[in-house]
Amino acid sequence: MSVSYKKLQHLLIEREISHSELMKMAKISANIITKIKKGQYIALDKVESICKSLDCTPNDILDFLTDENSSN
Q: Where are the beta strands (DSSP E) in the chain?
């Protein structure tokens, strides 16, 4: 199983929020942004911080993909 942050990327575009702005708002590091871009797992406290800063739920920013769907 893998994770997709496409929803987060779309949300940032819709709200015209850059990655650097998200880093400041959510108090996350550039390393977390890199992990998001690569579709790697991030710690739950970082997901919580992003959700609080964007006033959304984890369901609004990520999807879990089965291995057969991870290439999409």
A: 2-4, 63-65
